[in-house]
Amino acid sequence: MKKTRTNQRARHDRKLIRAMKLCMLFFLIGTSIGWGNLSYAQRPDQMHRLSGRVVDSKGEPIIGANIVEAGTTNGTVTDVNGHFTLNVGSNATIRVSYIGCIAQDLPIEGKSNVEITLQEDTQVLGEVVAIGYGTMKKSDLTGSVTRISMKDKSTGANTNLFQALIGSAAGVHLESRGGSESLPSIAVRGQTSLSASDAPLIVIDGVIYNGSISGLNLNDVETIDILKDASAAAVYGARSANGVLLITTKKGKQQKPLISFDAYMGWQDMTNNPMRVMNADEFAVRLVDWNYQSKLYEWYATHPTSVADRPKRPDVTDRNLVAQYLATPEERNNYLAGNEIDWVKEVLRIAPLQNYSISLQGGADNMSYYLSASYSDIKGIQLNDNFKRVTVRSNIESTVNKWLTLSLNASYSYLDRSGIPASLANARVASPLVDNKIGTANYDIYLGNELFQPYPLVYLYIDNSDISNELFSVGSAKVTLPWIKGLKYELNYSHTYTARNVSSFHNSNTPSGVNNRGMGTKNLSESRNWIVNNIITYSREFGNHKLNSTFLLSREQLTGNTTDASAEGFDNEVLGYNNLGLGTIQHAGSSAYKESSLSYMARINYSYLLRYMLTATIRKDGFSGFGKGNKWATFPSVSLAWVATEEAFLKEKGFYLKLRTSYGKNGNQGIGRYASLSKMATNYYVFGSETAIGIYPNTLGNPHLGWETTVSYNIGTDFGLLHNRITGSIDIYKAKTTDVLVKRQLPRSSGYIDIWSNIGEIGNKGIEIQLKSVNFNNKRFNWESNITFSLNRDRIDKLYGKKDDKDIGNSWFVGEPISAIYDYQMAGGVWTEEEFFSGKIPLAGWYPGQFRYVDQNKDGAIDPTNDRTIVGYKAPSYRFSIANSLSYKNISLSVLINSIQGGKKYYKADNALMINPLYYMQQRMNNSAINPYWRPDAPTTNTTGIYNNPPQQSGIYQSRSFIRLQDVSLAYDFDKKPIEKIGLQSCQLYISSKNPYVWTNWQGWDPEIGVSDIPLMRSIVFGIKLSL
Predict the structure, then answer these.
(1) Please, which residues have CB within 8 angstroms of residue 646's CB and are 6 or more apart in sequence?
(2) Distance of CA 794 to CAs 166, 191, 738, 768, 876, Å?
(3) What is the fold, at CATH topology level, of the domain defined by 47-121?
(4) Distance spanning both ends of the chain, measured CA to CA
(5) Out of 21, 121, 641, 769, which residue is the most buried by the measure of CB atoms under 10 Å away?
(6) Using CA atoms, how far apart are residues 30 and 155, in angstroms rounded to an integer?
(7) What is the per-residue pLDDT across 373-413, written as a single tens digit (0 to 9) for each?
């Protein structure tokens, strides 16, 4: 077993090395192209020969600086000594530019020789990023922080914020999901917990956000800063073990009112569909073979020694004979008449989507404002899969006087998820020989009246409503205390109110309502979350010393309640769930909850000579959900940074280098709010003709339940080459999670199922690389690239206390990754009749056409206790992305390639139990168009017989590796002069596609969603952006 895993890892490592070589080759080719010389055609009339030299602030020559005559395409670049020669008009103005420097416009005024000094553009390093309860220049950071600007995502076909983040930051792992809402899962630096939440903390405009990301308008977001290491995230202590996403929304500026409008519409379909379902002939013949092979395996059980008396396969070319094997008259009639239906096509559609967004921003001397509204209507590719969204936002800030600033940010979102999608799971296993009766007065609840074969479109007859309303507001007051220089106080209060109404009515023509004369349910829930932050900051500079300190007192409370009811037996179904009183109430209940937390935090940022930097943070958190003696925990962190290029011996070398290191401790409280308490439940009991409600204990509490904590270490570097033409960062991290929160199984004799406990340890380590380059840049053409690479490994170091402990039910093993796959190991191929007849099958009860498995303990039997082993891992080996942005004059093109390499996923279409065509709907799964099943007259080596019931059976796992063309966008910006005549400041047309193509060996719907019956979607949209 160890040798197999070693070989698997060796193969992954070789693939990793090859991928890194390809990324670096692409990177070097791109940048080298940009360093070549380029000259433009020159005008022959009134030319004046101009020579010159371009140097930096230190007097060093700049190689490859662009010199362009203003208003023309006439230009050149400097040579290795910074010199250039260019013929220009005698009264021309030249523009001199270079990456990492501030461009200059220089009138010639008859001069024949000039020397130009370009000053370094410190914007890249001087960019201000959010760090939690404050901001800081990027050059002063000591932790691992990545900034993503939403301006770069403005023309993508993104329907939510998480989609826009895919492939943008190393170490931020997003995996797409299907459905109309299409909200990807997200994790930062892999998995650090077994049962508690691994989702990162979301902070919007400085306040923790517990609402739905689906309710956020992408056009309202200015930037996202991702805090990845413990020192950067430590300011959020108790909830920061999984990283922090700091979302900053747009604000008003001191300018005249600016109206912006963005609209797009398009279509969606399935990304990848290599597998088709059976047609009528394949289905009917398979049914014949299933019956034939059932007799065949009965014959095998008599242990024959030759093929002499083997049952003969019926003549499948005789359609009348084949028709006799079909289950219903409807199927037989359709088969003989040549009628068939593809149910997958019946439940899928080309789905439209549309989005409209409008905003108004501006400001005066003492006030700024940003107002916006948006509407989205997104259809999923499964019939009846719908998602609608309405958002409204208002960000207002007012400077009352020189020491007081007030602000109010408020947003409202309306989400409509009504409708239950048509079942793709039922469609791809349904008989192709029954009629689609949708739209008729009466239709079969079950296809062909077969109880085991539900109607794929039955959900279209269920009246379902799912409405969410959310109001999120943040009010703050910032006070600058004039009597102490550098001292500021900020009070902010946020409140989130969420209400959700989920109702459904199953009329008497649906499977769940047919025997009950209709069934209705209604669930109403609401929650209120408020947070109060008191923040004191003190910032001063003393000569070469720079000090910034932050102190926080934060209080949070979350309350909520739920009311639900159900009824059956409706004499009148017209009002449905709007009047459950017309039926017989089956259940009525309500519940309420409350949780609270209290936090204190202090942080000090210190720098000397802008060269040596220190950040130290300590935070203390209390959470009501833990046991009485474990509600509080303290989370310290410290980080150091050294800007090496500020030292005298490196200062004039033409590059930037900063080294970072950090240590920190974070917490995870992602469990149920009452997990430490024992809970009671109710049930109905019948005593004669009377019904009574009883109360019984159903959940065992753990009064000793406490914090899950993660200690992590990070070393990293930020660098810039060629005046920041190439920039990047490399981070190596290692983390250890202790007191892991796990739901531990309890013996049945206890009367309980499980209990939350602090047990075990998990190790996590990885590498992140992010490179950005400006490959080519001048007035007409620009080409930039962004490459990300991340590798993450986790391991269970301790589980329930024993050195070699394991949890087979969850596939958790000490010394192995969390994502281990525990199953029977394939030995290759299937058993043959030759081996069977000669007695060479060493396992009792095994016959031809069944998979070979490795007998791990060599006892002559395959059993779950002794012969299962680790056969692979679900988690990827590594991830990478390559983004290119190109622009020529007014045309811009962006292309993003995203890839996951390594890891396996369960693939049910290859399993023998999934290809039997009788008795259970999941057994009608078909992949015969890809892999024909085994028959004695046509044996295969990689698939089993259609009638197959071995003593034990493994899952079939396929590689989930893929390279996806994630996003492609093409945009055209109109020149300003023509559009200014009609009152516009800017106008852009664009076309964009998401998930247009994927390269993979996965045989199912899509490698990212695996066996999910909600396919990933490919979209194309056409849009327009206007500002006036």
Answers:
(1) 609, 610, 611
(2) 22, 7, 13, 15, 11
(3) Immunoglobulin-like (2.60.40)
(4) 67
(5) 641
(6) 24
(7) 999 999 999 999 999 999 999 999 988 888 888 888 999 99
